[in-house]
Amino acid sequence: MLLRVFDFVFALLGLVLGFPFLLLIYILGLFDTGSPLFKQERVGRYQRPFVLVKFRTMQVDTASVASHLASASSITRFGGFLRKTKLDELPQLWNVLKGEMSLVGPRPNLYNQTELIAERDALGVYEVRPGITGLAQINAIDMSTPKLLAETDAQMISSLTVVGYFKYILQTVTGSGSGDRVGS
């Protein structure tokens, strides 16, 4: 419950204080792809669907697949910058504010990632809200390794403390991990 309070407060502060910055990225995104926001249905807590919001980093016509299956050539120059700096994740603060996500938790996957869904379901990963960052992300473990990812998510969930919550956020902000790998 305490972590949900932190989520709400930090997401609200991030959206309010970061509004001018978010607006600037949005405007630059208009020039980059013409459609700066990316919305995609993802698997949430208890395997309920929700619509994840991010800044668009790939061409508008890119197939809706996991990042490691997408073509690297579909990433725009501005999108590459957003991914490298993890700024593409900022609109997810809205998902956190609404209670669909947490700042810290397992990254939400797509419904077509059946192997990952099975692995996560077996380990109870869907009992918590998905997150913007977590143990897997700071260790550069992405959705291309479903079993390892699910095991890492379960490890994080079982050992998460308030200190760990802030540690994962700090490590993400300071550049740990590389984000989701993109295919060739």
Summarize the structure.
With about 180 residues, the chain is mostly helical. Helix content is about 45%, strand content about 10%.
SSE order and pairing:
Elements: H1 2-17, H2 19-32, E1 37-43, E2 49-55, H3 77-85, H4 92-98, E3 102-104, H5 114-122, E4 131-133, H6 135-138, H7 146-159, H8 162-173
Parallel strand pairs: 3-4
Antiparallel strand pairs: 1-2
Observed structural traits:
two-stranded antiparallel sheet; mainly alpha; 184 residues; 11% strand
Structural class: mainly alpha
Mean pLDDT: 91
Order of neighbouring strands in the sheet with most strands = 1-2
Shape by Cα distribution: globular
How many β strands by DSSP? 4
Strand content: 5-15%
Given the structure, what is the number of helices? 8
Instruction: Specify Rg, calculated over alpha carbons.
Output: 15 Å
The biggest beta sheet reads: 2 strands, antiparallel
Topology as a string of helices (H) and strands (E): HHEEHHEHEHHH
Distance between the termini: 41 Å
Q: What low-confidence regions span 5 or more consecutive residues with pLDDT below 50?
A: none
Helix content: 40-55%
Describe the structure.
With 184 residues, the protein is mostly helical. It has 8 helices and 4 strands. The chain has helices at residues 2-17, 19-32, 77-85, 92-98, 114-122, 135-138, 146-159, 162-173, and strands at 37-43, 49-55, 102-104, 131-133. It has a two-stranded antiparallel ribbon with strand order 1-2. The chain has a two-stranded parallel sheet with strand order 3-4. The model has no long low-confidence stretch (mean pLDDT 91).
